[in-house]
Amino acid sequence: MARTLRVAGLVDDVKVVNRPGDSGSLALAEFVADYRGDGRVLLVGGFVMLGAAPAGSPVASYLKSVVPIARLTGESQALAVSAASPFRTLDDLLQAVKHRPASILWVGGPYGGSNHTFLTMLADVTGAEVLRTNYVPTHSRSDMLAFVVSKLESVGLGGYGEFAAEVASGRVRVLGVTSTEREPGINLPTLREKGLDIVYVNWRGVFGAPGTTPAERQQLAGVVGAMVRHPDWRAVLREQYWTDMYEPPGEYAHFLDGALQAPRTERPVVGMPGWFGRWRGISLVAAIGVPALLLATLVVGGMWWRRQRRAGLDREQSLSTNLAEARGDAERSAVTASALLKGVGDAIDAKFEIWKLTDAEKEVALLLLKGLRHKEIADIRKTSERTVRQQSLAIYRKAGVEGRNGLAAYFLEDVIPPVEPDRTDRPS
Q1: CB contact at 8 A, 209 and 41
Q2: 158 φ, ψ to 5°?
Q3: Are 33 and 251 contacting, i.e. CB atoms less than 8 angstroms apart?
Q4: CA angle, 196 as apex, 193 and 197 as ends, to 5°?
Q5: N or C, fewer C-beta in 10 Å, the chain?
Q6: Could you tell me the domains of the chain?
C-alpha cells in the first residue's frame, strides 16, 4: 500500500509503525480508543482479526465499531516441501496424511495464524486429529524455510510468494494450494480438485476509525479506490501472488456482516489469548493530499517481546498449567501422546539448530529447560559454575530471550501445541 500510494501521488508521506497485539485485539482496541473520530487513519486487518473476535467478546464489539472502507486482497495457502522430500506430488502428501499423519511435521507462523488455522481445517476434514499436535510455529520466514529444508518429511505453510524465490532456486517444491481453482501464474493443483473440501483464502482489508464523518469516510474510500485502480497496485498483486478481492464500502460491510454472524466451529484454546493465539502487527501511516494521515495497522501476530518483559514468571505458571492439561489429554490418547512428544522433540532440536547452539550449549539448554540450577548443571557436566553461566548467557543471546524464564516460556508457548478443548459438542 505504501509503495502504490506514493507512486500514484495519492499521499505526501507514508510512515510504517508496528502495533503488536494478542490475536490483533490489542491493536484493534488501541485503534478504537486512540483514534476515535479521526478521519485520517485506517486499520488494516482481515480473516485472522475476525478469528480473534468471538461473539459477545470486547474484541467483537470493537470490530463492529470500526468502519469498513474496502476489502483488498486474498491469499491462499501453499504447501511447500524440500526439493529432496519424499513427497513429490500433492497426492504423495495426501496419502501420507491418510495413512501415517503422525510422521509429518507442519511448519508455519505462530499459533492462531493463517498457517495454523489451515492445519486445523485439514485435521477436521481428514479426521487426522494428530495433525494438530505436529505443528511447529516459527517467528520468521527464514526459520520456517530452514526447518523445511532440513527436515525431509516436513511441510511449510504460507503464501506462495513466501516460497517463490526458493522455488526458483530449486531448494523448495510447492505441491499445491488451497484456492478454489488453479491460480494464474501458479497453476498448481488445489486440495479441492484432489477430493478434499477445503478452500482457504486469507483476505485482508481496511477499516476507518469509529466516529468519523461520512465525508471523511468517503475521502478514505476514494483514496483506497484510486490506489487499487493504479497500475502499480496490479504489479504489487502479481509480485506478491495475491488475488484481487477489492470491494467498496457497501459490499465490504455486507461481507463482514455475514462473516461476523457465521457460526464459529473453533472454541478458544486453553491458556491462549484470543481465538488461537498471537498475531504479528504492522501499521502504515500516510499523509493524504489535503493534509491528512493514513494509519494502517496490519494485525497478524503477537506481543511476544512485550509479554516476555512484563509477565515472565506469571506466564510460565499459566503455561505450565496448559502443559499439565496437555499431559492429561495425551494420556487419553496414546497416538496423540506419541505424536506430541515427537513433535516437541523435533521442534526443540530444530530451534537449537536455527539458533546455532554448540553441542555444549544444546546440553546446557536442555538442562535449563528441566529446571536445573547452574551449580547442578556444572556438577553434571563436570565443569565450573562460571562456565555454565557464560554458556547460559550465550544461549539466551542466540535465542533472543531474557533469561531462564524467557527460555522456558518460549518453548512452553511457541513449541508445545495448545490443548484442544473437548470437541464432542461441536456442530457436525
Answers
A1: yes
A2: 170, 180
A3: no
A4: 100
A5: C
A6: 2-75+202-301 (3.40.190.150), 78-194 (3.40.190.10), 304-414 (1.10.10.10)
| Residue pLDDT, tens place only, 107-153 | 988 777 788 888 999 999 999 888 888 898 887 788 888 888 888 88
Q: What is the pLDDT of residues 83-120, one digit of tens each?
A: 999 999 999 999 999 999 988 999 988 777 788 888 99
Question: Per the structure block, which three cell numbers stand in for 289?
Answer: 493530499
What is the rounded distance in angstroms from the CA atom of residue 12 to the CA atom of residue 15? 10
Mean pLDDT of the chain: 76
Q: Are 75 and 202 in contact (CB under 8 A)?
A: yes
Q: pTM (2 decimals)?
A: 0.59
SS3 of residue 6 by DSSP: helix
Select, from the ranges 240-244, 295-299, 334-338, the one with the highest average predicted confidence (pLDDT).
240-244
40 touches 209 (CB < 8 A): no
Q: Are 173 and 83 in contact (CB under 8 A)?
A: yes
Which contiguous run of DSSP H or E holds residue 36? none
Q: What is the pLDDT of residue 278?
A: 27
117: Cα within 13 Å, side-chain hemisphere:
29
Rounded to whole angstroms, the Cα distance separating 165 from 142 reads 12
